[in-house]
Amino acid sequence: MTDLSHCAVLKAVKQQQASDQHLLPDKRQVAASFSRAASSYDSVADLQRAVGTALISRLPDLAPSRWLDLGSGTGCFSRVLAENFPQSEGVALDLAEGMLRYARPLGGAAHYVAGDAENLPLCDASVDLMFSSLAVQWCPDFAAVLSEAGRVLKPGGMFAFASLCAGTLFELRDSWQAVDGLVHVNRFRERDDYHRLCAASGLAISSLEVLPHVLHYPDVRSLTHELKALGAHNINPGRPGGLTGRARIKALMDAYEAFRQEQGLPATYQVVFAVLMKPDAD
After folding, report:
1. d(CA 187, CA 23)
2. Domain-embedded: residue 235
3. Which ranges carry the Methyltransferase type domain (predicted)?
4. How far apart are CA 204 and CA 144, in angstroms?
5. CB-based burial of residue 21 (10 Å sphere; 0-12 exposed, 13-18 middle, 19+ buried)?
């Protein structure tokens, strides 16, 4: 590849990253939203518990001296990690300080740190295991997250993450599309972007797969109220402002009924599970 064509490729990659970041929520709004949801989060976090448990089950046998729970939230899986690795030192890190204030009294980690996954306030080669369940989908620059993982992991260390990709909540998105065509549902990266970025990260891919996880609700309001309680309601650029009128809510309900199953109204989450390894030092 010539220098010119190489530059063209780099420019195209940067343009795509800029485009992706423009479509994803602002991190400050994400942090504020989840901080407000700290006290209600665990009461409605069925998906989060199921996904985190599935990610824990994907960890191979290991004995980390220090682990990092990246996007630790209310600390549910910080406490699981502490139980699984009682001799280890745990670090719980989250961008939402409200979540850290909620989690700290419940214990689990030795340290609770407010920080950004794209710019970790941790030393090089200081962590054996990075665990992150349903957090990195909120990071606009996932390449930076992977770069930081490569920096803070010790040689032979592991980055295990679960995230969400495009196709998540397609039933809700399609139903809103039929009503007004505006952005009402959070956007997520394409699954191919996860493969591409992980492959280019310098970390070895031990496993990477996308699995659907479907929850069912008696009605649309139950779903939207749960998303709000989780802090995961619509925080995308381009979302409509103001209150949603009764006529539009009725139209949404009618459109969503086309998806109804015997168990109720489905909400499908496309979950990315990945285990990446930092190569051993030469």
Report:
1. 7
2. no
3. 68-161
4. 16
5. middle
Q: How many CB atoms lie within 10 A of CB 169?
A: 21
Least reliable range by pLDDT among 7-16, 83-92, 185-194, 254-263: 7-16
Is the sign of the CA dihedral 217, 220, 225, 231 positive or negative? positive
For residue 20 the two structure tokens come to 């992706």
Alpha-carbon gap, residue 239 to 246, rounded angstroms? 18
Residue 67: inside a domain, yes or no? yes
Q: What angle do CA 66, 69, 72 make, to 5 degrees?
A: 150
Q: What is the pLDDT of residue 73?
A: 92
Answer for the pair 161, 262: CB distance below 8 angstroms, yes or no.
no
Asked if the structure places residue 179 within a domain, the reply is: no
User: What pTM was computed for the model?
Assistant: 0.83
Instruction: Specify if 196 maps to a domain.
Output: yes
Distance from C-alpha of 221 to C-alpha of 246, rounded to nearest angstrom = 12
8-state DSSP, 182: -
DSSP string, 23-86: HSPPHHHHHHHHHHTHHHHGGG-HHHHHHHHHHHHT--S---SEEEEET-TTSHHHHHHHHH-T
Tokens found for residue 4: 């010119």
- Residues 6 or more apart whose Cβ sits within 8 Å of residue 165: 137, 188, 189, 190, 191, 193, 194, 210, 270, 271, 272
Query: Which CATH number is 95's domain given?
Result: 3.40.50.150
* Alpha helix (H) residue ranges in the chain: 3-23, 27-36, 38-41, 46-57, 76-84, 97-103, 142-152, 170-179, 191-199, 220-230, 246-256
- The tokens describing 104, both together, are 């700290």
- Model confidence at 196, pLDDT cuts 50, 70, 90, reads very high
Q: Which residue, chain included where needed, has tokens 């909120």?
A: 138
- Segments forming the whole domain that contains residue 190: 23-168+186-214+269-277
Angstrom distance (rounded) from CA 41 to CA 198: 30
